[in-house]
Amino acid sequence: MRNTTRKVAIAGVGFVGSSCAYSLVNQSICDEIMLIDRTPARAYAQALDLSHCMDFTHTRTKIYTGSYADCGDADIIVLCAGASPKPGDTRLDMADTAYAIYKDMIPQMMASGFDGLIVAAANPVDVVTYMVWKLSGLPRERVIGTGTSIDSSRLKTLLSEYLPIDPRSVRGYVLGEHGDSQFPAWSHVTVGGKPILDILAQHPQRFSQLKLDDIAAKTRNAGWEILQRKGATYYGIANAIAHIVRSMLNDDYNITAVSAVLEGEYGEREVCAGVPAILTRRGIAELVELNLTAEERASFAFSSSVIRSAVAKLPL
Question: Binding residues for substrate, per the UniProt record (predicted)?
Fold first, then answer.
């Protein structure tokens, strides 16, 4: 009988990695979760704690600790290992630290015989996605970063508070860097299928308090607002990771904004940036190229240049 066990390995089980495992368990997304951490005792404690959820979940998920050498039979590896930014730093300032972590980790994982999908969640996620793609040698469709998935969710949540409607009735994407140069593609944001720009034009008084520039700024700064108040962000990104993992394991063909290697899409090459992508069991089946306005195209080109400059400083 062919083994159909769905195994996810999580490297780095701090706030983000452990919250990701918790989301995977509660949503019954996979059969096995292997936790890897530079502090084995912490990985063991997280696995033990998570195993005590089983009596209260729909299905049993086997949770245990492992090493890079045990990644060979994993379907997906989620990369959460990283450092928190220091006061005054941007996400891009963490690129050197991320490289120091992954330049040794990824070759060890690949040496295990791993031949699955990688989801990068560590910051700066667009830079990390690119470096992991280079270090792993995997095809570009099999290395995915969480990118602007969480930013797109933040955008929808903010808009829902002004309209007010269920955030899931809002469709749209934040594009580019998961960082300071990101931007919402307002020309493609819809509410119940109706463009947000049309809604604002038709009801200027009703929605006078909804300023798109303010919403974009609040979306961009949401992570920092959380960081300043409690030290880290983890619940939202954990569910974003779980959504991406579920979409791929279930072959959902779901369209989600993720960080992907661009090879001509949106006029960019040799860079990873947040764009809508169709997620399947094989990874990214296709990148969705939105018909952007001239201003949005310029914003995307600038954001890509910011990411590319950060990558160029690394010894890849």
Answer: 91, 123-126, 151-154, 233
